[in-house]
Amino acid sequence: MVLRYCLLILIAASGLVGSPGWAAECTDVSRGGPIALSGKLAHREFPSSADEEFAGQRSTAESAYILQLASPKCFFGDEYLGGEVNVTEVQLIVSPEDNPELYGRLRDRIGGPVSVTGHQPFGAHTSHHHAPLVLIVDRISDDLDVPAESARRAVEGFYLALAAGDGAAAAQYIIPAKRRAGPLSAAALSSFYGDLRRPLQLLEVAELGADRYRASYRFETRSGARCEGTSVVTTADVGGASLISRIRAENGC
Q1: Tens digit of each residue's pLDDT (9 = 90 or more) over 124-164
Q2: At CA 161, angle to CA 155 and CA 164, rounded to 5?
Q3: DSSP 189-237
Q4: Residue 44 has pLDDT above 60, yes or no
Q5: DSSP string, 117-162
Q6: Which residues of 7-34 are buried (b: 16+ CB within 10 A; e: fewer)?
Q7: What tens digit of pLDDT does each residue of 156-187 get?
Q8: Do residues 125 and 114 touch, judged by C-beta distance below 8 A?
Q9: What is the pLDDT of residues 86-107, one digit of tens each?
Q10: Domains defined along the chain, listed by start
Q11: Which of 21, 78, 250, 253 stands the most exposed, by the fewest C-beta atoms within 10 Å?
């Protein structure tokens, strides 16, 4: 069946099941949180599927955007993935009719580095799926290391990445001096937020002034402890980009 309303978009390349060492962390797609990925964007076309030709339908090539991931990522939690899969290509979907601005931004960035945030990931299971994982795109930014377009978006992006349990994506929003080691490093963030019983849910980001924001959120730990928390997040300009320089929890979580 010819796709008329959605443009199939691919981010990065193939996956292998059970290949330890490719990806240190494995994301559970059944948790329903946002997924943040980065890489270099390219454009490809795919011929019509054999199913279309068998059904006598008109042969039509499918356009696709491919983002080559900066490093492989592990995913599991969907019946079509068949277990833990290390992925270097993910297929993303954007509708040019429903979201023409997002579609146009993606088209204009072919050949360059981009960071993408999406939702509803699932394993490929039809002839129109050209990568092991499929993801619906919500947001695109231009820089792999600095995906935030403003101080507020840096704070939002940080907590949305935590909601997905992706410490590597969250650490991209932290100033370099604090992202390499310690509690704001990718490993530390993934270890805690990737092992929650109920993933973090970002409730609100409120501007306080003087490059400060208050983030409100909730989550539940593996032991059953529940957090209804707020933190004051301070941002700083680093080379023209807004990054997080400090996070102060106001109620212990």
Answers
A1: 888 787 778 888 888 887 544 444 347 888 898 899 989 88
A2: 145
A3: HHHHHTT-SEEEEEEEEEEEETTEEEEEEEEE-TTS-EEEEEEEEEEEE
A4: yes
A5: EEEEEEE--STT--SSEEEEEEEEES-SS---SSHHHHHHHHHHHH
A6: bbbbbbbebeeeeeebbebbbbbebebb
A7: 889 998 988 888 889 989 998 898 889 999 99
A8: no
A9: 888 888 888 788 788 888 887 8
A10: 1-144 (no CATH), 148-253 (3.10.450.50)
A11: 21
Nearest to 45 by CA among 130, 102, 113, 126: 130
Half-sphere exposure of 247 (CA within 13 A, CB side): 27
Enumerate residues 6+ apart whose C-beta is below 8 A from 78: 29, 30, 121, 122, 123
Q: Which residues of 177-206 are buried (b: 16+ CB within 10 A; e: fewer)?
A: ebbeeeebbbeebbebbbebeebbebeebe
Which helix (H) or strand (E) covers residue 7, if one does?
A: strand 7-17
Structure confidence by residue, pLDDT tens digits, 212-223? 999 999 999 999
Query: Whole-model pTM?
Result: 0.48
> For the residues of 27-90, what is the DSSP string, one character each?
EEGGG---EEEEEEEEEEEEPPPHHHHHTTPPP--EEEEEEEESS-EEEE-STTT-S-EEEEEE
- Cβ proximity of 120 and 136 under 8 Å: yes
